[in-house]
Amino acid sequence: MKCRKGISTVVGVMFAIIALLSIVSYITYSMNTLDKFNQSILVTNQENMDRANEIFSVEKVSLNNNKFNITVQNNGNLPISINRLWIENITHTSDWTFKYDINHVVAPAEMVYNIGQNIPLSALESQSYKIKLVTERGNTKEFSVNSANFAPLNIQLLAVPSTVPSGFTAGLIMLVTNNGSETLINLTPQLPSKIDGDAQCTLGPVSPPSYDTLPPGGTAVFKWDLTVSGRAPDFCTYKAELQNPYPGNFAQAKVTLKTIKITATDFATHAGVLSINYTSFRWSQGGDWNYGWQVPKGADTVFSLDLNNNNFTGTIYLSKTTTLVFYPVTSSQQATFYIVQNVTSVPPPPTISPPYTCPPLNDYCVSVPANGTHTLYFAAKVAGGNAVGQFSAETQYTGFLIVFGKYSESEAGPGSQYGQNIPYIGLTVS
Amino acid sequence: MRIGNNPCNRFSSRYHRRRGLATIVTSAIMLSAVGIMGTTAVSWSNSNLVTHQEILSKSISDKTNKITEFITIENVWAGQDTMIPPPNKFLNVTLTNTGNIGLTVTEIKIDGITSKVTPITDGELVPGRSYSTIIYYEWNTNDVLNVYVTTQRDSIFRTQVFAE
């Protein structure tokens, strides 16, 4: 029986081997096929990842010789190939769209320039375009370049400072904010026009002259120096707009002249604790008070001026030795006029009433309150006297006020003595 | 050791003579039957395996091709043909095959206020090639339009555009 079973075994083994080989080959084939599929999935995934990792941005758009000049930055880590440029004119009534095949390869972190310089399209600054760049992997970057007349912009015109002393320079600043969603190109301001005001205003050159592009949300700043002169409160009102503007899209600013004012504290620091209002200086030889600088000689003369106490905390009581002194420029005959409480100028000649006498000290009769002003009169030939002084020499006089006093709570009370010379008074006696 | 008593001794002439023919016939029949059955089984199983291989191959190939094909809807711009009376508004759709294999665009569907399906008969695209077509569609300014592109492999690519 063993000899019969040998053939069956051989035959069975052969069939088993055939079946096994078939199965193995099927499994091998299946595995290979699945491996290929797996590879294709990996390749597709890699391509999708590459496509997603392709990052680029439009850095600059300008028009050079009526040709677009687009600069693109590759912000990703893969080289990109920009191979299509679409340009749509959105200003033109027929709304044309052109497609151009281009070939610009940009390495990672590099920039490519002059895209659009070689296409047969002549673009106009006065029109708006929608541009789309397409990469070889199918990514697109769409943006618009508009002229300023495409839509109203947020324009502000600021005068900094808005009030200036005559002869000083203010800054006229024009802020243009792109409040749209598309890039603006070639923003150039017009020279601001003066539309109102009597002040003499002179504009300097603008800086910078223009902006090539202004991305959405960006702000362009243009500045002019504006020199203003005249009398306060004259002013200049300027109107600024862009070249080729959207109708009615402008801004205004006003620069007003002002008189220089120094606070009392600053004045006390820079000009003294006491100061006089030079415009209040006046004299009389009876009758009207005169503000001029020509005084006749040989007549009783009284003076008046306002004295400011720039001390914020203390009242100053003036001594009877407070004097208005005039020195002649060509002789030695000085003229001295001591302080009096008041004068009477009508009828002429002027008289002292009362003199600088007051109980209990017969001194410190007049006070100037803290941070206040008081009108003083000068007339007496001697301190506390009744006789009115006069000029005897015909010449020019330089005058100054010598103030003696004390900061005190009262006329008779103790206090801190204070003396000051206040110059810059001039007269001509003829 | 007696050689003549061994029933398997091929040199035993008596045993050989008695059972030789039947054994041969029976063995032949059995062998044939086993052979036929084995061959049939192996053939059947091989056929099955080949069929499965083909199915698997086609399925894998279809799926590979489907996942490999990729279309970029490169640009869609809205226009109006003033040379003809209304309705004369249209969309110019440009597609680019940015995948690695050829594909065939079979239809483009515009879905906005109204929906319009346009069959494409000349949409064979080799890799890297573009295809543009004009689809007449009455758009309104600032309409949001969905554009669907269907390929022969039933892949659908979609984008959204503003009509302006």
Give your account of this protein's structure.
The complex is a heterodimer of chains A (430) and B (164). Chain A is mostly beta strands and 430 residues long. Chain A is built from 2 helices and 29 strands. In chain A, the strands form 6 sheets. In chain A, strands 18, 19, 20, 21, 22, 23, 26, 27, 28 and 29 form a 10-stranded mixed β-sheet that branches. A 6-stranded mixed β-sheet of chain A has the order 4-3-6-7-11-14, with no helix packed on it. The mean pLDDT of chain A is 86. In chain B, the strands form 2 sheets. In chain B, strands 4-3-6-7 form a 4-stranded antiparallel β-sheet, with no helix packed on it. In chain B, strands 1-2-5 form a 3-stranded antiparallel β-sheet, with no helix packed on it. Chain B has one helix at 13-68, and strands at 71-80, 89-97, 103-111, 115-125, 130-136, 144-151, 156-162. Chain B is an alpha+beta fold and 164 residues long. Chain B contains 1 helix and 7 strands. Chain A binds chain B through residues 2-4, 7-8, 11-12, 14-15, 18-19, 22-23, 25-26, 29-30, 33-34, 36-37, 40-41, 43-44, 47, 84, 86, 88, 90, 94-95, 97, 99, 132, 134, 136-140, and chain B through 8, 23, 27, 30-31, 34-35, 38, 41-42, 45-46, 49, 52-53, 56-57, 60, 63-64, 67-68, 70, 72, 74-75, 77, 79-80, 82, 92, 94, 96, 98-100, 128, 164.
